[in-house]
């Protein structure tokens, strides 16, 4: 660690974030990688379970919201989504995420919906999405615009993913801007997802995927070359492949970087080949300074106990300058799939 960063860490320990630039705090922001179902606060999980006559304490939710590895996180995600049973449940959590985003000065968000999970539970994506849109609509008057990403679960396989693309077509809403795949990226080879992405693109959807989170750099390369991925969810594995870093920078393909998520799921420890890592080990500055576009996000803010404001503070803690943080904030507008907000942060 150089002297400048040492001094900054010392100051942060005595008074966390005291020096954080006000210009960054006050800026309107965009967030492009966050999951609706990962944004359910413990008190809301209890409200959802109560609707179904199940008693769960907030303490139990907090215990579930702690993981030692990525698969444990996926288990917790599965657990919390099991309480989303009716369209009104989705409406409730949509209002919650919208309030949360406004509290973070977010004026534009692309929120991921786990349509794959809805289909697995034999729910109607159309009915759920109708309730979600109705719940989000009043927030537009308060200055928050949300678009949606329909997401499939990789380990459910290509056929299930195709059903998600079809659900997007059936919902027929301009606010569905992209198709994505999350979940266990080590489960299904990328090449098997090719026709699903072709179908999504033919339907006018942008193409996203979680890659290089726990998988190696080759998963990112394949996502770009085989699937035409336009942004990469996480992509931290790129730090281990300089040629791939060049490719991402040259082709202006953004990484959706979610630092706290990478710590809490063990993804960063895995990529760095170490048993324990902290925020100060995150490669965000290295990726950014290599010229790779980066959009800073929280992924699952409730499940990782983090806010977007805190992620900007982490970036500062990592040594990024005020100027770099302002550029970082701007990138989340520049690489959004809806461009009408792109001037807001300038
Ligand atoms: Zn994610």
SSE diagram, text form:
Blueprint: H1 3-14, H2 22-25, E1 29-35, H3 42-51, H4 58-64, H5 70-81, H6 87-103, E2 106-114, H7 115-120, H8 125-141, E3 145-153, H9 158-171, E4 176-182, H10 194-202, E5 206-211, H11 217-227, E6 231-234, H12 242-250, E7 255-257, H13 259-264, H14 267-272, H15 284-289, E8 294-296, H16 308-317, H17 322-334
Helix pairs in contact: 3-4, 6-8, 9-10
The structure holds zinc ion.
The site of zinc ion has 6 residues, from strand 1.
Fold and architecture overview:
- With 346 residues, the protein is α/β, with parallel strands linked by helices.
- The protein has 17 helices and 8 strands.
- It has one domain (3-10, 19-334): TIM Barrel (Alpha-Beta Barrel), CATH 3.20.20.140.
- It has helices at 3-14, 22-25, 42-51, 58-64, 70-81, 87-103, 115-120, 125-141, 158-171, 194-202, 217-227, 242-250, 259-264, 267-272, 284-289, 308-317, 322-334, and strands at residues 29-35, 106-114, 145-153, 176-182, 206-211, 231-234, 255-257, 294-296.
- Strands 1-2-3-4-5-6-7-8 form an 8-stranded parallel sheet.
- The chain binds zinc ion (ZN).
- Zinc ion (ZN) binds at residues 33, 35, 182, 210, 233, 299.
- Residues 33, 35, 182, 210, 233, 299 line the site of zinc ion.
């Amino acid at each position: 660690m150089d002297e400048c960063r040492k001094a900054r860490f010392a100051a942060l320990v005595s008074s966390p974030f005291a020096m954080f630039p006000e210009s960054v705090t006050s800026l309107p922001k965009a967030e492009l990688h966050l999951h609706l179902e990962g944004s359910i606060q413990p008190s809301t999980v209890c409200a959802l379970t109560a609707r179904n006559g199940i008693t769960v304490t907030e303490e139990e939710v907090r215990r579930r919201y702690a993981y030692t590895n990525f698969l444990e996180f996926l288990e917790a995600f599965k657990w919390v989504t099991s309480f989303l049973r009716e369209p009104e449940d989705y409406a409730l959590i949509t209002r919650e995420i919208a309030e949360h985003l406004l509290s973070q000065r977010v004026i534009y968000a692309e929120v991921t919906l786990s349509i794959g999970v809805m289909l697995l539970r034999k729910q109607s994506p159309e009915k759920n999405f109708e309730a979600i849109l109705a719940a989000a609509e009043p927030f537009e008057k308060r200055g928050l615009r949300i678009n949606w990403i329909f997401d499939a679960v990789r380990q459910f396989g290509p056929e299930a993913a195709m059903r998600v693309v079809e659900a997007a077509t059936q919902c027929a809403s301009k606010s569905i801007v992209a198709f994505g795949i999350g979940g266990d990226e080590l489960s299904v080879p990328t090449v098997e997802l090719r026709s699903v992405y072709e179908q999504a693109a033919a339907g006018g959807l942008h193409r996203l995927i979680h890659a290089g989170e726990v998988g190696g750099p080759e998963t990112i390369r394949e996502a770009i070359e085989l699937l035409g991925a336009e942004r990469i969810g996480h992509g931290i594995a790129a730090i281990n492949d300089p040629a791939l870093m060049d490719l991402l920078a040259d082709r202006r393909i953004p990484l959706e970087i979610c630092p706290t998520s990478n710590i809490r799921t063990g993804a960063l420890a895995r990529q760095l080949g170490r048993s324990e890592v902290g925020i100060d080990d995150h490669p965000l500055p290295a990726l950014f300074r290599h010229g790779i576009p980066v959009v800073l996000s929280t992924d699952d803010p409730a499940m990782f106990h983090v806010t977007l404001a805190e992620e900007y503070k982490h970036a500062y803690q990592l040594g990024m300058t005020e100027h770099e943080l302002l550029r970082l904030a701007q990138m989340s507008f520049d690489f959004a799939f809806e461009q009408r907000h792109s001037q807001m942060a300038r």
